[in-house]
Design a protein that fits this description.
Low-confidence stretches: none
Structural class: alpha/beta
Number of strands: 7
Bound molecules: NADP nicotinamide-adenine-dinucleotide phosphate
CATH architecture of the largest domain: 3-Layer(aba) Sandwich
Number of helices: 7
CATH topology of the largest domain: Rossmann fold
Strand content: 15-25%
Number of domains: 2
Largest sheet: 3 strands, parallel
Strand order of the largest sheet: 3-4-5
Mean pLDDT: 96
Shape: globular
Oligomer: single chain
Distance between the termini: 29 Å
Length: 176
């Protein structure tokens, strides 16, 4: 998503959980800044890297990171709520955001995002992404794990952050 933002002319700031992932965002993908949420104070770093506030925010995490971003949104800003991974393993009800009231002050839009809702536009996305990839404007990396028997162990990588790219379980040599 951040790479598309760069192609569209945005200033883009990413947040990730390791120095290596932040380096990938900054040095390989061209993000303007990247924040390591495990070692940096996210709110202070966001203030530093978004001195003019946040116009568009793509949310995958929730919790303190969401709250930090909410506190810096601009007038008429837009938030796509795609995921809340920080609460998927919660065993008790998760407290709500402290800064939701900023949606009112800033007349901001928060909308849930489900990728399958846009399935009818998949060809459009593939055409753009394919062209940008061929032009070297976007990059991606994948972690391919062999064998369906490794699926549960692999799934947990999403939560401990040990995947570096899109996680794929390879179950067969055949693609059909
Ligand atoms: N709405 C939809 O249609 C849709 C579809 C697919 C996925 N999603 C959502 O998109 C998000 C990304 O999923 P993905 O499958 O694409 O895999 P992904 O981008 O590889 O996300 C997994 C990464 O999330 C980070 N993470 C895990 N726990 C975290 C926490 N408590 N706080 C902050 N970061 C944490 C870890 O990286 P770090 O090293 O940075 O911690 C981990 O490597 C998830 O929220 C998922 O539910 C939504």
């Amino acid at each position: 998503m951040g790479q598309i933002g760069k192609i569209k002319g945005c200033r883009v700031v990413g947040i990730a959980g390791s120095e290596e992932k932040c380096r990938w965002l900054r040095d390989e993908l061209g993000f303007d800044a990247a924040i390591n949420y495990k070692t940096e104070p996210v709110l202070e770093s966001l203030k530093q890297y978004c001195p003019n506030g946040i116009d568009v925010y793509f949310e995958n995490v929730g919790g303190e990171i969401f709250d930090a971003a909410l506190s810096l949104i601009n007038l008429r800003s837009r938030i796509a709520l795609c995921g809340l991974i920080s609460q998927y393993n919660a065993t008790e009800p998760v407290p709500g955001s402290c800064n939701l009231i900023n949606l009112i002050y800033k007349r901001a839009t928060l909308e849930g995002f489900l990728v399958l809702d846009y399935f009818d536009r998949a060809q459009e996305a593939l055409a753009d992404l394919g062209e940008w990839y061929a032009q070297g404007k976007i990059k991606y990396r994948v972690d391919v794990i062999e064998g369906l028997e490794n699926a549960p162990r692999t799934f947990n990588k999403l939560f401990d952050g040990t995947n570096q790219g899109k996680l794929i379980i390879k179950v067969s040599e055949n693609s059909d």
